[in-house]
Amino acid sequence: MPDKVKKVVLAYSGGLDTSVILPWIREHYDCEVIAFAAELGQGDELKTIRKKALASGAGECIVRDLRSEFVEDFLWPLLRSGALYEGRYMLGTSIARPLIAKEQVRVAHEFGADAVAHGATGKGNDQVRFEITYMALDPSLKIIAPWKDPRFELTSREAAIDYANKRGIPVDQTKKKIYSRDRNLWHISHEGAELETTWEEPRDEMLVMSVPITQAPDKPAYVKVTFEAGVPVAVDGQKMDGVKIIETLNRLGGKHGVGQVDLVENRLVGMKSRGVYETPGGTILYTARQGLENVCLDRDTLHYKEQVALKYAELVYYGLWYAPLRPALDAFFAETCKNVTGTARVKLYKGNCRVVGTNSPKTLYMPKLASFTMGGDYNPADADGFIRLFGLPAKVCGIVERETSAKKPKAGRGRK
């Protein structure tokens, strides 16, 4: 028998999974359910969410606007790190889950709830991200995860739609429109339908935040992004807060088909899955930041930062935002980015996004030094000695290899 609970706070998105899970928890746990929704920039998704939650049986629906906190405390540290999971995924869903779970725990404390719940499936990464955060912030709270409950009979999205229809629960999904999506200010993800095979091409009508590349304008656009210590502060010379910067770049990047990724990734739980991600504004910001880093960071710092970013991406993807290592790495990235100040000019064209110009007061790029013209601070004769010393280990290995090879008996000339 499951633990007896009195009051549950459910991480509620208003989507199919949480819409059917809400009444299911009430029926099977005989307790009050409070729906909690985080405003993270989902667009119109939250307009009717309170009405939908109450119609599904929630005792209350709490909506919190967390967009500024999301940008300042989560997205900007992620951007400074340059982390990409498996080289392509910009961690849009992963980075949001710890914030949602953190505020969910806060709501549980405010309303005297003794349990928290989520609608993540038993095959996904989100179950790990939610539950690790719950355990880190309040291990006394009971955790309800219906998809892992042996009594939970809704083992497919089709079954969940039937369940909702029979009980008059309002849901937007149909059996013909069955993508599983997650959207916030940073991105939107798509899973399911034709994406459950690795052979089918994603359909154009699936896209939400950006146009198909074939429909992008024939004329390129240019945008200038200004950074201070690795954090964006202005677009085209106009100062903006973080939320406004991302919204502005989302519109521009989406218009030009920027930031679309079709990816088969390795989930934490051990399987491969396919998803399509749209991250238009984030792609522009990552590209601009990298362009500035290339001129503002010395070689060793830049190369080591790239190595550390791989670990940071894993921490975020695995749901370990509140593990001790993450804030320690944040301190490293903040220090390495303190000179990443200036403006990057980015060109957008038919899904492509690249830096075409940088200007920084902290630049390490010296035109006279980089020029093909000899003289000045660089004496070519110095390179001769440098190469001899730098190549000495390779030279020693070559000498030893030649000497040992000469001593080996040749084939066919051994002792008879």
Please give a structural write-up:
The chain has about 425 residues and is an alpha/beta fold. It folds into 2 domains: about 5-180, HUPs (Rossmann fold, 3-Layer(aba) Sandwich); about 185-295 and about 340-370, Argininosuccinate synthetase, chain A, domain 2. Helices cover about 40% and strands about 20% of the residues. It has 13 helices and 14 strands. Strands 3-2-1-4-5 form a 5-stranded parallel sheet, sandwiched between helices. α1 (about 15-30) packs across α6, α4 crosses α5 and α9 runs antiparallel to α10 (about 325-335). The longest helix has 19 residues, at about 90-110. It is globular. The model has no long low-confidence stretch (mean pLDDT about 90).
Instruction: Based on the coordinates given, report the CATH architecture of the largest domain.
Output: 3-Layer(aba) Sandwich
Going by CATH, the homologous superfamily of the largest domain would be HUPs
Report mean pLDDT, rounded to a whole number.
Answer: 92
Radius of gyration: 27 Å
The proportion of residues forming helix, as a percent range, comes to 40-55%
User: Strands of the biggest beta sheet: in what spatial order?
Assistant: 3-2-1-4-5
Task: Count helical runs.
Answer: 13
* Class based on secondary structure composition and strand pairing: alpha/beta
Spatial gap, N to C terminus: 82 Å
Relative strand content:
15-25%
Question: What is the succession of H and E elements?
Answer: EHEHEHHEHEHEEEEEHEEHHHEEHHH
Task: Give the uncertain stretches in residue-range form.
Answer: none
The count of β-strands is: 14
- Provide the domain count: 2
Q: What overall form do the CA principal axes indicate?
A: globular
Q: In CATH, what is the class of the largest domain?
A: Alpha Beta
The main sheet comes to: 5 strands, parallel
CATH fold-type name of the largest domain: Rossmann fold
